[in-house]
Design a protein that fits this description.
The protein is of the alpha/beta class. It has one domain: Alpha/Beta hydrolase fold, catalytic domain (Rossmann fold, 3-Layer(aba) Sandwich). The protein has 11 helices and 10 strands. An 8-stranded mixed sheet has the order 3-4-6-5-7-8-9-10, sandwiched between helices. Helix 7 links the parallel strand 8 and strand 9. Helix 3 crosses helix 11 and helix 4 packs parallel to helix 6. The longest helix is centred in the N-terminal third of the chain and has 21 residues.
């Protein structure tokens, strides 16, 4: 066994040890019962067990990670690289997943499931290209490091309730200045098929990038965005045209220029935004498992605009946006659907 093979074997054992069986995978495909259980029994707080990556994923992906530091904070970037033979004529898309500790394994398993079904039909490599998957995570053993993701995925908002956040501009700088150059020098991907996907705070950050740097990605998949952050101020033209809040000069420049960038992005028919929300998020009173205390917390965090309203707001500004309601699902139940939507988008051929 050569050095490269030994490293890869150790890495696979590491993933197996870390990503314990929070996701059921059967015959290389996502189990319907696993998705159903997540959808119907999503807790108020995230499950901190890191999901397992199917051992069968090693047949189509080479798994690796790289630890990085940025402005005093530590990050771990997970990468699933298609193995030779899985990509032929078409350059592969690059799918960037936020909350990488938890959702990178889910994305790899979802890609495995869809690729397996395409292969069974004889359509793999003919009608699709297996995507490169990049998980933006942290060197921690928790699926959702709450303090770090609150800091990194949220924009500055005044008030004690939002004091723990505000680092979205810094995190975008990390993504733009360190992560993407590393990926682009190590791997060959299609520059016109770059996708960003996130859920909850991750969905809020994806929206932040869309509004401030719409040209950064070609497709945005936004699941259950935390629009309550900043009392819903992100869905407001005035929010991006200036603010009395203390900001860096680059933030002010971003906000002053955002209207022009959004206008140009709206004219680019290749860009697409997909927004998802759970039925029980839109109408929590319909959830048969809703407890009064949880309903009260949700009502305290209600934003003036929900995900459906966000879709309408974006479309009114000329962006190619689409909304999907996830049936009989709460906040956590949107995660597997969001991941599968992003993977399906990444597998598709480039739009004409």
């Amino acid at each position: 066994m050569n050095k490269s093979t030994k490293v890869e074997a150790r890495l696979q054992r590491l993933y197996t040890a870390l990503f314990r069986a929070a996701l059921s995978v059967r015959a290389g495909c996502l189990s319907a019962s696993a998705v159903l259980s997540v959808s119907q029994a999503a807790p108020a707080q995230p499950v901190q067990t890191i999901p397992a990556i199917s051992s069968m994923a090693a047949d189509i992906y080479r798994l690796s990670y790289k630890d990085m530091n940025w402005r005093g904070h530590s990050y771990r970037v997970y990468v699933a690289t298609p193995r030779p033979g899985q990509v032929r004529k078409n350059k592969t898309a690059a799918l960037y997943i936020l909350d990488g500790n938890a959702q990178f394994p889910l994305a790899v398993n979802a890609a495995l499931g869809r690729w397996t079904r395409l292969a069974e039909k004889g359509e793999a490599t003919q009608t699709a290209a297996l995507p490169l998957i990049v998980g933006l995570g942290y060197p921690e053993d928790k699926a959702y490091p709450l303090k770090a993701r609150t800091r990194d995925y949220t924009f500055f908002a005044p008030g004690e309730a939002f004091a723990a956040g505000g680092g979205a501009a810094d995190f975008y700088d990390f993504l733009r200045s360190k992560v993407r150059p590393y990926i682009e020098t190590q791997y060959e991907t299609d520059p016109d098929r770059q996708i960003l996907a996130g859920h909850s705070f991750g969905g809020l950050f994806a929206l932040y990038v869309l509004l401030n740097h719409p040209a950064a990605f070609d497709d945005y998949v936004i699941g259950s965005p935390s629009l309550w952050w900043g009392n819903g101020s992100i869905v407001s033209d005035s929010h991006w045209s200036g603010s009395s809040a203390p900001e860096r000069e680059t933030d002010v420049a971003d906000r002053n220029a955002s209207a022009g960038r959004i206008s140009r992005a709206a004219g680019d028919q290749k860009k697409h935004v997909m927004i998802l929300q759970g039925e029980y998020e839109e109408n929590p009173e319909a959830d048969p498992n809703m407890k009064p205390e949880r309903l009260a917390r949700m009502q305290q965090r209600r934003s003036p605009t929900d995900a459906r309203g966000l879709d309408q707001w974006l479309r009114a500004r000329g962006l190619d946006s689409q909304f999907a309601l996830v049936s009989k699902s709460g906040h956590g139940g949107v995660i597997p659907v969001m991941i599968d939507t992003a993977v399906r988008q990444a597998l598709q051929k480039k739009r004409p």
